[in-house]
Amino acid sequence: NKKVTIDEFEAYFNNPSLQSLFRALDLDADDAWSLFRAIDIDGDCVLDPEEFLEGCLQFRGNASALEMAGVRRDLNKQKGKIRSLQTEIIAVLTELKNSLDNLRDPLYTDKC
User: Fold this and answer.
1) What is the pTM (predicted TM-score) of this model?
2) Rounded to a whole number, what is the largest CA-CA distance in the chain?
3) Phi-psi sector, 64: left (phi>0), alpha (psi -120 to 50), beta
4) 48 contacts 18 by C-beta, under 8 angstroms
5) pLDDT in tens, 4-51
6) Residues in contact with 38: Cβ distance below 8 Å, sequence separation at least 6, in sequence order
């Protein structure tokens, strides 16, 4: 079966041949579990050969300042979207609470 589980990956992680591959790809791999999770694109907890190679190529080398700036920019955009959604949700919940309060008032009024 050409798929590798996390247990198999950890068992071979310190294998000199695999470490040579990591060096050849300029991949700084210190932790088998973190690397496995990062390259397990579909999240099925197994790696097929294509997924392994694509994942290793994606993480080779160090992130440049330019790449980090792009990540920061994207993160800030997402934070703005989250704040906007939060404001909308609060408004909807406030309106819902007010509507429920208005419905509840006549039910609890004493008519004696």
Assistant:
1) 0.46
2) 88
3) beta
4) no
5) 998 888 888 888 888 887 777 777 667 777 778 888 878 888 998 888
6) 55, 59
Q: 97: helix, coil or strand?
A: helix
User: How far, in Å, CA of 91 to CA of 81, rounded?
Assistant: 16
**Euclidean distance between the first and final Cα of the chain, in Å?**
80
What percent helix, strand, coil does the chain show, rounded to 5?
70, 5, 30
- At 18, is the secondary structure helix, strand, or coil? helix
Dist. CA 76–CA 95, nearest whole Å: 29
Tell me the C-alpha distance between 36 and 9, whole Å.
Answer: 8
Query: E strands of the chain, at which residues?
Result: 4-5, 46-47
Tally of CB atoms within 10 A around 4: 19
